[in-house]
Amino acid sequence: MKKHRLYELKEYDKNWKVQFKDKARRIRKILGNEIIQIYHIGSTSIPGMVAKPQIDVLVVVKNLKKIKNYYNAMSSNGFTHLGDYTGIGEECFAEDRKDGIRLATIHVVPKGHKEISDQLNFRNYLRKHKSAREDYSKLKKKLYSKYANDYPSYANKKKSKILQLKRLANKWAKRK
Q1: Which residues, other chains included, contact 82 with Cβ-Cβ below 8 Å and sequence gap of 6+?
Q2: Would the pLDDT of 14 be above 60?
Q3: Whole-angstrom Cα distance, residue 28 to residue 35?
Q4: In this prediction, what percent of the chain has a pLDDT beyond 70?
């Protein structure tokens, strides 16, 4: 279970795109030729979505095992190694402020990993389906009002909605 950390929710901010580009540029400088693609994922990548103002980045690499060679470089550039943080077979890094507020989470996966299509379908589905986006935003606001000081509960209580949306998004993507 995730431990509590400070967090907040904010209305969509177009500056999140700029922040993503900055993170992507920094990651490219570190991982270089290992990278196949870098994607902006999560709620900050969805215009109109309420979100924790933390940039989620999905990095697709040629060989996940080689990422261990970059732990020190990532660390010296402000990214803390979290290991397989979400339990999906990834290398994960976080960028946190000194007060513990998370600025970014970097998910590194190998080419062909299921998380790539899951995350992109989820993002694209919510970009295209306003009612689903608004419904999910309402749930997040409701949970935040109840669990502002209990991040593990906030994260846990929205899991079933995320899974439901991922199923819908994957079905939608197959029909396209």
Answers
A1: 92, 93, 94
A2: yes
A3: 7
A4: 99
The CATH class of the 15-175 domain is alpha beta
**pTM score, whole prediction:** 0.95
- CB neighbours of 125 closer than 8 A, spacing ≥ 6? 132, 165, 168, 169, 172, 173
- pLDDT tier for residue 128 given thresholds of 50, 70 and 90: very high
* Cβ neighbourhood burial of 101 (10 Å; 0-12, 13-18, 19+): middle
Tokens of 169: 């998004």
Measured between alpha carbons, how far is 92 from 107 in angstroms, rounded to an integer? 5
Beta bridge partners of 104: 55, 95
Site of tokens 């803390």: 80
Element (DSSP H or E) covering residue 15: helix 15-31
